[in-house]
Write a structure and sequence with these properties.
With about 425 residues, this protein is an alpha+beta fold. Helix content is about 20%, strand content about 40%. The radius of gyration is 34 Å and the shape is elongated. Keywords: Membrane, Transmembrane, Transmembrane helix.
Length: about 425
């Protein structure tokens, strides 16, 4: 075989050298160009094609929320000032919506929510009604029961009331993460017989962890507000909430005689809530306590609760009557501070509508706040509504992706 060689030629004045170049370098350079060309004409365009599909159909897809009467929420999920040019809302009931920066301020003006509640509680069962109350709110409660043995327990807790496994029939389980804080809440109890008013100060209220994971929330199936369709989402930022309702009176099972001890059920409640109990009172009972109208005509038990610190407050009704199911009737009059939406133009608000739409400026930090109004004296029936939040794509931004693909193909075709 011919051998590769190099030759040198000399003359008197000059030296000439002829060297035969190797082909490996040029071959490698060509291979690299092909690989880079393939990557830039297949992988990068694929990313530019998939990205807008992901953004439109997943990241900024339509979002459905389940919200209740008196809820005030701020919407983050599925919205972007870059990829959305409009934000539209639709609900199966009227609502108010405001587009603004930051959070609204509370005012001294208060709205009135009236609730009439009637419940039937078997022995050793409970039913609770919870509210998120701002400092300055007040609650007036009137109640009575048909038979002896019913009581009310008022506690302060978290967004999801910790029941220590009592609702599930488990043995009492104390939450080791509970940490006490010092607050002052004034609760006044008025009884019709002596007209004596007692003021109780509770300095040890217990808060749970404010950020329970979504997994834990979905496990609270007995909590009315958390029994949601998997396709529905929890609001990102809750500024105010309506009514939380739960209990085991409507899911009672027959227990053994030893489990039906009057003291064990109540003892479990005391141990569960311990230091964050604000009030614990027996209900006056009467055979004439048949409905809430009885409470309007005659003052039985009246509780005035003045709130001095924001939080979730729960009114727990339970019965310790071994012989009959006890009927309990109660009327709540709740007065809550309202939010102030000042300096907002007409284009950035819609009032008492079922559909509304807002324009979104590029790089704007404005968000939409949705408020489900509660009129003065309205009877709250724990209605829940479905709110649809839609991001309308900003075409000028999305068109960048397919145009970039064409430009890349044309650019690298000439390399």
């Amino acid at each position: 075989m011919a051998q590769k060689s190099s030759s040198a030629y000399y003359n008197v004045d000059y030296q000439y050298t002829s060297i035969q170049n190797k082909d490996d370098g040029s071959k490698m350079h060509g291979t690299q160009r092909v690989i880079i060309f393939c990557l830039l004409t297949t992988v990068l365009p694929a990313i530019l094609i998939i990205s807008p599909l992901y953004l439109r159909n997943i990241k900024y897809a339509d979002v459905m929320y389940r919200i209740s009467d008196s809820d005030v929420i701020q919407i983050h999920k599925g919205q972007s000032s870059i990829f959305c040019q409009k934000h539209s809302l639709k609900m199966n009931s009227s609502f108010n919506a405001f587009q603004m920066k930051g959070r609204p301020n509370l005012t001294k003006k208060r709205r009135h929510i009236k609730l009439r509640k009637s419940m039937t509680l078997p022995d050793d069962t409970l039913e609770y009604w919870g509210f998120y109350l701002f400092a300055g709110a007040s609650v007036e409660l009137k109640g009575c029961s048909r038979y002896e043995g019913s009581k009310i327990l008022v506690v302060k807790g978290d967004k999801i009331l910790n029941t220590c496994g009592i609702l599930e029939g488990d043995k009492y389980k104390r939450d080791p993460l509970l940490v006490g804080k010092n607050h002052h809440v004034s609760v006044t109890v008025e009884r019709p017989t002596s007209k004596k008013r007692e003021v109780m100060q509770n300095k040890n209220e217990i808060w749970h962890n404010n950020n329970m994971s979504d997994e834990i929330i979905r496990k609270q199936t007995k909590h009315k507000r958390d029994v949601v369709n998997p396709s529905l989402h929890n609001p990102n930022t809750i500024l105010d909430t309506g009514v939380n309702h739960g209990g085991n009176a409507f899911n009672i099972t027959t227990n053994s005689a030893e489990d039906k001890s009057v003291s064990s059920f109540e003892t479990n409640l005391y141990e569960c809530y311990n230091d964050n109990i604000l009030m614990n009172e027996f209900f006056p009972y009467s055979i004439h306590c048949n409905n809430t109208k009885y409470l309007e005509d005659l003052t039985t038990l009246k509780v005035d609760h003045t709130v001095t610190s924001d939080g979730y407050y729960y009114y727990i009704f339970y019965s310790d009557n071994d012989f009959v199911n006890n009927d309990i009737h109660a009327i709540f009059d709740i007065y809550k501070p309202t939010f102030q939406y000042s300096n907002i133009s007409d284009s950035k608000m819609c009032l008492n509508q079922t559909e509304c739409e807002f324009n979104i400026n590029m790089f704007s930090d404005e968000l939409v706040i949705v408020e489900v109004p509660t009129k003065d004296g309205l009877n709250n029936n724990d209605d829940s509504f479905i709110l649809m939040s839609v991001c309308h794509p900003r075409i000028s931004v999305y068109i960048f992706f397919p145009v970039s693909v064409l430009l890349l193909i044309l650019l690298f075709a000439f390399l």
